[in-house]
Design brief:
Blueprint: E1 2-10, E2 13-21, H1 33-39, E3 43-44, E4 55-58, E5 65-68, E6 73-76, H2 81-98, E7 101-111, E8 114-119, H3 127-136, E9 140-143, E10 146-150, E11 154-158, H4 181-187, E12 200-201, E13 204-210, E14 217-220, H5 223-234, H6 256-270, E15 275-280, H7 283-290
Parallel strand pairs: 2-4, 4-6, 8-13, 13-15
Antiparallel strand pairs: 1-2, 1-3, 5-6, 7-8, 7-9, 7-10, 10-11, 11-12, 14-15
Length: 294
């Protein structure tokens, strides 16, 4: 029996993963692209510092299953890479949250001296295209898919890949359009830009909605709307929307206590920051509207 033990980190948070079997892989994640895309920057650590695993994968178990006891995720049997990667993201996101680091499903830019968050929110229609158009207008890139924000509302790190170009087995999605197609339609080709990596507080939040049928519209959101959309964004990492992972449902990792703490954080985050719902037919029209309030 062999055991592979690895530790992964994002910011100050660390998790330990143990893979057990007659034969184990060289690494639990042979490709870190998905982890970086979802949690901004995930590192494979050189040393093992944790006394107990946060995720265990028993490769040779006779029956396939996945469980969560509130502390450890356990996979038994043969699993594709995709569900394992998603579970790692969730467990690591829980540890990040405990350390005061909150992943937001969002993109962000440094634009006109302000840090602007394009929030995925409930519908998630336009954060990437809005970010690209803002960068065309001179913005520096803070994040693409995920923005990690601390307890003070300050950005600590952000993902830099615009799209996830390939999906691991077990996460295939026919409903997801070819990632570069929208870029071709709206911009012709992918532009270039500079990154902005300094910590900065969020100044403005835009919830974008891009649809070819929308007339341009900007509405300043009230407290409930802002909190509602922000909660959707931070809730995106905890498997609550994952129904099935190759024959088995993903376990529920959330609790009322965790959701209450998350709600308290969201309410604090939303206080004093203007939120705008901006609808438009194109990213260009959306940023024309955003320019009026940034």
């Amino acid at each position: 029996m062999a055991i592979l033990t690895e530790e992964l980190s994002a910011g100050t948070a660390r998790i330990r993963v143990d893979v057990i079997g007659a034969e184990v892989p060289e690494h639990v994640c042979n490709n870190m692209d998905f982890l970086d895309y979802r949690l901004a920057s995930v590192q494979l650590e050189d040393e093992i510092t944790l006394s107990e695993p946060d995720l265990v994968w028993n490769l040779d178990a006779p029956e396939k299953s996945v469980t969560w006891d509130g502390t450890t995720m356990v996979f038994d049997g043969e699993w594709a890479d995709g569900p394992i990667n998603k579970a790692i993201v969730t467990v690591l996101a829980l540890r990040m949250e405990a350390d005061g680091l909150h992943p937001f499903h969002s993109s962000a830019v440094r634009y006109r001296g302000k840090t602007v968050l394009f929030l995925g929110g409930e519908s998630n229609h336009g954060k990437s295209m809005a970010q690209i158009e803002a960068c065309i207008r001179g913005a520096e890139l803070v994040s693409t898919e995920t923005t990690v924000i601390d307890e003070t509302g300050t950005v600590r790190m952000g993902s830099k890949a615009i799209f996830l170009k390939s999906r691991a087995k077990g996460t295939e999605r026919a409903d997801k359009a070819a990632p570069n197609r929208a870029v071709e339609i709206f911009f012709g080709e992918m532009p270039s830009w500079e990154d902005y990596d300094e910590p900065s507080k969020i100044d403005v939040v835009v919830v974008p909605a891009i649809d070819g049928n929308f007339d341009p519209s900007t509405v300043k959101m009230g407290d409930f709307e802002a909190q509602f959309q922000a909660f959707h964004s931070v809730q995106n990492y905890f498997l609550t929307n994952e129904l099935l992972a190759t024959e088995w449902p993903m376990p529920l990792t959330d609790t009322l206590e965790l959701r209450k703490a998350r709600t308290d954080y969201v309410n604090k985050f939303c206080t004093g920051i203007p939120f705008y719902m901006i609808r438009a037919a194109t990213p260009q029209a959306l940023m024309d509207e955003a320019d009026k309030v940034i």
